[in-house]
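Quick one: F-box protein CPR30 from Forsythia ovata, C-alpha cells please.
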Amino acid sequence: MKNLGYKIPEDVVIEILSRLPVKTLLRFKCACTTWFTIIGSHCFIQKHLNMALEDSNKARLFIVHRSNKYEKFLTSFVNDDELTLQTNLSFDTKRLGRISCVMGPCHGLFCIYYERHNKLLLWNPATRETKDIPKSSIPLPSNENTAQYVGFGFDSNTRDYKVVKILIQFHRDRYSDYHVEVYTLSTNSWRKIEATISDFDLCSYMFPTYWNETYYWWGQTEEDYEDIIVCFDMCIEQFYRILLPTEVLPMVHGRRYANHCFTEYNGSLGVIFCFMGVTTSLCELWTMNGHGAKVSWTKQYYIGLFETRTMRPLMILKSKIILFTNKNHDIIPYDHVTQTMRAPLPDDAIIKIKSYEWIENLWITSGGSYTESLVRIGDGK
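--- reply ---
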C-alpha cells in the first residue's frame, strides 16, 4: 500500500487507544516507541481508567474462590447479561499459604491478605503485575488476645492507593485497645494514625466491601452486641459507625443476621439483609443514602422467603437478577419479580471448588463488579 505521507495527530491516536482493552494495549506497546510512551504515561492510564469506569458495559461480574487443595486464588470474570464465562485467572499462593481476605477491586486492583504470615500484596489481574507490601516497622502492642482487620481503597485528594490496618486488643473487662496504621502506595510505607475508634468489634466471617473511597466492614458494639456497619473514609482517614435500619431489627422473632451482604444497586451501595431461621431464610434489599456518619436507609423491596437456611446472597446484577450461592458452591440466579430460582450456572460458566466446609464458604466465595485497568502498582501511578 502506498504511503500517502499522512500522519494521524497524536490526540486522535490517544483517543482511539483509550477505547481499547488492556490486553490489546499491552501488545500495542511493542508496536513502536511512540505507542510505548503513550500507553505507559500516567495521563493515558488515567484517561483509559476514567473512560472504562464511565462505561458500565465494560464492568464485569467477578466471583472469587480459594482452593486449599491446589493452593490457588481463583477469579472468574463473567458476562453480566448472559452469565457466561469470559476469563478465569489464578494466583498461585504456595509461597505464602492460605489467603485470609481478598479486598477490592478498586480501579482494577485487588489487595490480598495472608493473616497467618501478616503479609499483604497488591495485584492487577489485567496486567498480571503484583507488588509485595512491606511489613510495618511500627511497634505493636502485645499480640495476645488480638484480632487484625484490613481494608483497601483510593484517596482522590492525594490520588493515592491506601491500605488501612486495624489491630484490636481485647481485655477481660470487655475494654479494647485499638491500633490503626495506614499504608500509602506512593511512599511505600506505613504510618500510625490517631483515629477515633472504640467500643466495637469487626466480623471476620462476613464480607466487607469498598465503595466510593470508603471501606465498609460488618461489626457489633461491645456493650450490647448490636449489629452495625463500620466504615473508614480513605480521604480524611476517619472511622464512622452506621446503624442498621430500625425496621429490620425486630422483623422476624428468633432469626438472626447471618448471610447479609453488600451490593451495588442503581448507583448506590445496598445491603441484602438475609435473616436465618431454623429451616428458612428471609431476604430484603435496602440502600444507603449519604456517606459516613450521615447515612439514611431506603427499603427497595422484599426479595423472598426461602425454604432453606443454606442460601447466601452474593450480589444483584444490572438485570436485577440476584445471585445466591449454597453449600454445594452452586451459583444460582434468582428472579425476584417472578420469585423463581433459575438453574445453577453450568460448570463451564463458573469454577466451583467443592473441597470446602460450609463455614469456610461463608468467607471464601464473594463477588462484585470489576473494571480492568492499566494502573501500575510498582510506583503507585
